[in-house]
Design a protein that fits this description.
Shape: globular
Radius of gyration: 19 Å
Order of helices and strands: HHHHHHHHHHHHHHHH
CATH architecture: Up-down Bundle
Distance between the termini: 29 Å
CATH class: Mainly Alpha
Helix content: over 70%
Strand content: under 5%
Largest sheet: none
CATH topology: Na+/H+ antiporter like fold
């Protein structure tokens, strides 16, 4: 099953569009997407992601799940922080690129979520229904990672007297965070009837716009391949090791707060994943100087296939271990 899913996603329009952008740049094609159009794509994608996530939250029954919600909030804060610190101080990336890496690894992969859910069901340990809402909340890791980047930049590029409140205010005013957070609130508040009125635009068109956005991201990544070569081996290790660390950490905590093995496993697999769909738009909007050949190639080229082939089964075994040790 995993190999079939991997093949299906490797030949998906999203992946192929990214590769086409890389090829177009490498052969020096005159293909070009104007910057104002890319900004429109980013605005659309971010707002759409927020609205759809808010809709999922509105439909989730989270009333009696204080422990699970607390766990999710802790993961949203800790995973981007750990990824940022490793990328910054061990890999040696600058602040903007470290924030970009942290945003992708602090976010979640919807494909990995679907695969983990199916794997749990196939193993006879299906996840609880409310996990979908928790996964939607974990998207907030994007915002947290970008805040860490803003904070680090304030300490290195401005005066030491810059207050935390000013940095937080600047972060929240950024278009990426505003669109994601505002969309999340909108999606949760508007109700199903109002959502149906905008669904043809924000849902049906989403994948098509995403294909064009990934085409441009591939072109941008190819223009900066030299930067990835400089950290290639380190990012290869990062792209494989970090998911295992995040997955082990998350499944252990999920077991401690009382989640059954299937739900703990899915939370762990999602925590181990990295986004190549949602987070890149936010990174480009907030830190346009960050190099997508580093953060996107690591997520899409290393972590994504690793998780589908080996990562998901490994994390399931880790979840079983924690269940026997802590359950």
């Amino acid at each position: 099953m995993n190999s079939a899913i991997l093949l299906e996603n490797l030949i998906s329009p999203i992946t192929l569009a990214f590769l086409l952008g890389v090829i177009a740049t490498l052969i020096r094609s005159d293909l070009e997407i104007p910057e104002p159009v890319i900004r429109i794509f980013a605005i659309f994608l971010l707002l759409s992601i927020g609205i759809q996530g808010g809709r999922e939250l509105a439909g989730a029954d989270l009333g009696n799940l204080l422990g699970a919600i607390t766990l999710t909030g802790f993961l949203v804060i800790s995973i981007p922080a750990f990824a940022f610190l490793v990328a910054r101080h061990i890999i040696g990336l600058d602040v903007r690129n470290a924030a970009g890496v942290a945003a992708l690894y602090g976010s979640v992969s919807s494909v990995t979520f679907v695969v983990a859910r199916a794997y749990a069901e196939g193993a006879g340990t299906p996840m609880e229904g409310y996990i979908t809402g928790l996964v939607a909340l974990m998207e907030l890791g994007i915002l947290v990672a970008l805040f860490y980047g803003r904070l680090a930049l304030a300490r290195t590029e401005t005066t030491a007297t810059t207050g935390l409140g000013a940095i937080l205010s600047e972060t929240l005013r950024g278009r990426g965070l505003l669109l994601l957070g505002g969309g999340l609130i909108m999606g949760a508040a508007i109700g199903e009837k109002n959502f149906e009125r905008i669904e043809p635009f924000f849902v049906d068109l989403f994948r098509g716009v995403l294909v064009l956005f990934l085409l441009e991201m591939g072109m941008t990544a190819a223009r900066h391949l030299g930067a990835f070569r400089a950290v290639g081996l380190k990012m290869l290790a990062f792209g494989i090791t970090m998911p295992l660390i995040h997955g082990t950490f998350a499944t252990g905590l999920a077991t401690l707060v009382g989640l059954p093995v299937g739900s703990a496993f899915v939370i762990g697999a999602v925590a181990a994943s990295s986004s190549y769909i949602d987070a890149p738009a936010a990174v480009r909007a907030t830190f346009p100087e960050a190099n997508p050949s580093i953060y996107l190639t690591s997520s899409l080229g290393i972590t994504f296939p690793f998780m589908l082939i080996l990562g998901v089964p490994i994390i399931y075994q880790i979840a079983l271990f924690w269940q026997s040790a802590l359950g």
